[in-house]
Amino acid sequence: MKAETHDNGNMKQSIVREGNTILVYELHHPRCVSQFIWIMKEIDREGYQEVKIKWLGEKVFPNACVPISGIIQYYKTVRKIKFCFEISPDNYLFQCGFAEPIYEEKEALEKERNPFDKIYRYNEYGQVAALTQAYINAISRQQTCSKGVIDSLIWCINEVMDNVLLHGETDNGYVMAQFHEKTKHVAFCVFDAGVGIYNTLKESTHSPKKPIDALSLSIQEGVGDGKGQGNGLYGLYQIICENKGLLTITSGSASMMFSKDGNIKKFERIPFLSPQNNETIIDFQLDLMNEVNIQNAFKTIGGFDGFDIRLDDMWQEDNTVLYNVYENCRGTATREAGFELRNDVQNTLSRMKAPMILDFSEVQTVSSSFIDEFISKLVVSLGMIEFNELIRVKNMNETVRFLCNRSTYMRIHEEWKKLQ
């Protein structure tokens, strides 16, 4: 069935109810979350113990599907309501873990090469670090990013996920990311059903009078409940402003939306789970093509720790970067694998600001398309002189060397013909 919305008075409904069945037509906007909460409150109040969720839509964005998935888990565990889902197994919503968010230990997350389009449940700091690293590695392979973007994302992802465990007073956090290739941006949403920002701050020295005041305070420097430095959401807000990205913070009955042009929209009296569970939703998007001046974003809070264990392992005592091609690639037979490696190498060069050694010692064979997409296009992209200044290739066997030389000659010839 084609996705559509339904009128309910003056409000467009993406989620509607028929008895104990919830019909979901879209999961594409924060208002979907409010509609779902209203419906679940009605269902709970009327005493239903079983709920069917029927998916009839197409659009799925993290800012709706992550909170609703987390809210379902809340009603399952706290209110003891059973849910059944009518979602096709080959549908995106089923595969992303909407009905049952994905839980992986730190060791499994460290091996995750494609963390996009999955709702993860996490409850310990090791998972936060591993997921942050997985997201950063995946973004580095997917797109050559502008200066400062990847390092900024390390802060954003880690801080927002970490805040759930530090301040939320809840057992679990939920996170999902999407990479949008056409628009070159990433979208993240982090949800928890914990005490919320207002409950966290109202007993502090800041003492906000109402939830919307708590959100305004949360993006100010040094504001917190005393458990941390109070710069997590402040730093996120500064990075979003630098990048001209998007940010929405929702907690309890209040929400603030920050647009690319700097405008702020405030909303009050929106539905929330309970006085004890003022659930919090942090939804942000960064444009991978918009440079971020990290020093400018963090000029008042003194420094920025963008630690990346993978890059740290590459650093050599002679101030070069040793990049093991075999360890970082997803095979050497396809053009796609070469494309991912080229992006990763260019992002690594930009972030490390040091000469790089491409070590082919464990690579036995390659396809012509792989080596063309990886090395030959890298030569063209950087230019021959800059390539020779920044990159040294070592330990290529004779077969790989022959294919590399041949592909590079052909690629340069093709580029030269375009200039004729």
Task: Explain how this protein is built.
The structure is a single chain. The chain is of the alpha/beta class. It has three domains: 1-100; 103-305, Heat Shock Protein 90; 309-418, 2-Layer Sandwich (Transcription Regulator spoIIAA). Helix content is 42%, strand content 19%. The protein is built from 16 helices and 16 strands. The protein has helices at 30-45, 62-77, 92-95, 106-109, 125-142, 149-167, 196-201, 211-218, 232-243, 294-297, 309-314, 325-328, 335-352, 368-382, 384-390, 398-418, and strands spanning 6-8, 11-13, 15-18, 21-24, 50-55, 82-86, 120-122, 173-180, 185-192, 246-251, 254-258, 264-267, 280-287, 321-324, 356-359, 391-394. A seven-stranded antiparallel β-sheet has the order 7-8-9-13-10-11-12. A four-stranded mixed β-sheet has the order 3-4-5-6, covered by helices on one side. Strand 11 (254-258) and strand 12 (264-267) form a beta hairpin. Helix 5 packs antiparallel against helix 6, helix 13 (335-352) packs parallel to helix 14 (368-382) and helix 14 (368-382) crosses helix 15.
Question: How many β-strand runs?
Answer: 16
Largest sheet: 7 strands, antiparallel
- Segments where pLDDT lies below 50 for 5+ residues? 1-5
CATH topology of the largest domain: Heat Shock Protein 90
- Which percent bin holds the helix content? 40-55%
The number of helices is 16
